[in-house]
Amino acid sequence: MRRYVGRLELACGTLTLALFAVAVLLAIANGREHQHERAVIERIEPCLADLHALQDASAMLATSWVLAVAVDDAAARADYARHRRTLEGQVVALDQRAGKSVRGQAIANIAARARALAAIGDASIANASAGASSSAPPQAAEAAVQAFVAFHAAITEVSDALRSDIADARADADRVDELTRALAIAGLAAGAIAVALLVRVSVLRRRSLWATELERARLAALMQATGVGVLELDATTAVRFANPAAAAALASTPAELAGTPIRALLPPPFDVPDPLLEGIARAQRWAGDTTFIARNASELPARVRSSPLPGGGAVLIFEGLGDERVREGFLVLASHELRGPLTSVLGFARMLARRLQSQQRSSKRRRARPSR
């Protein structure tokens, strides 16, 4: 039972650690993916805002451009120069963001077209200030409108692409959030199952320990109550446990016997192999008679049975032969001393029995004669 409980504990612990590791790895991966999507959105949104600002600046620049070419006065040219600086600032900001955006090449092309648009405007205003033909302003206005429309179309295309990228990134982030929540729920469910299994295993373990303690208590009570001596030896053949009967037989206490080598309890000579020690060393069962040396140096003849223990060591069960030998000696002596008298009594009893049988036959014959 304890073996199976230990295996269940190991399986539950392994399952819990595996679920924890998987949850941590998935959380890290989802966190990184979520951060990546958020970083993409954070890079795209400023570019989109700059494109909108550039679009507004280009519209203002085109308006001031047409007025400066058509009116050709200082105020119109000053207004154009102001919008020109605003456009250049937006272009510089957009160039800086182009290297960090997912559509950096398209944004760089927009910035280049904005500069080209500004260069066309600068050339038109310079020609108008130099006294160009009267047909120049309408041609310049038409060119400005065409360039503006093309430029705005390009900005709209790139802006739509950036909005699509933002939508995709937000959708991916939402999917990651949903997956994270699903993993969290699954992790909680798996954790609850693992906790339930651990609780069940803990209950089984407690029951197993309780049963083991009861078994130990029962064996301890049996060892205390039994009249035969019991010695438990460890792998070094030293006494690990001795019951009260063994301690009393060896004129000692269980605490004093603990740690005593079994060789010290056997009589010399120590150079002669002892069959009991050989059986213990070979982890074999052995039964026979031997003699123990008690603590008070007295000899204790005993009949011993030895059995090996799992993991090394042995258990010895012995019973003193002193009373049995006295009983056997008494029986031998009594039978020898009583044999002569009992033989005489038996012979006299047989003689009496034969005399009694002879008297009974004579009496029967006398009673039978008068009847004839």
Into which percentage range does the β-strand content fall?
Answer: 5-15%
Assembly type of the chains comes to: single chain
CATH architecture of the largest domain: Up-down Bundle
Strand and helix order: HHHHEEHHHEEEH
* Shape call: rod-shaped
Number of DSSP helical runs: 8
**Strand line-up in the sheet with most strands:** 2-1-5-4-3
CATH topology group of the largest domain: Four Helix Bundle (Hemerythrin (Met), subunit A)
What is the total domain count? 2
Distance between the termini: 95 Å
CATH class of the largest domain equals Mainly Alpha
Unreliable runs: none
Mean pLDDT: 77
Strand tally, please?
5
Task: Walk me through this protein's architecture.
This protein has 372 residues and is α+β, with helices and mostly antiparallel strands. It has two domains: 2-200, Four Helix Bundle (Hemerythrin (Met), subunit A) (Up-down Bundle), CATH 1.20.120.1730; 227-320, 2-Layer Sandwich (Beta-Lactamase). Helix content is 74%, strand content 9%. The chain has eight helices and five strands. Strands 2-1-5-4-3 form a five-stranded antiparallel sheet. Helix 1 (2-71) packs antiparallel against helix 2 (74-98), helix 2 (74-98) packs antiparallel against helix 3 and helix 3 packs antiparallel against helix 4.
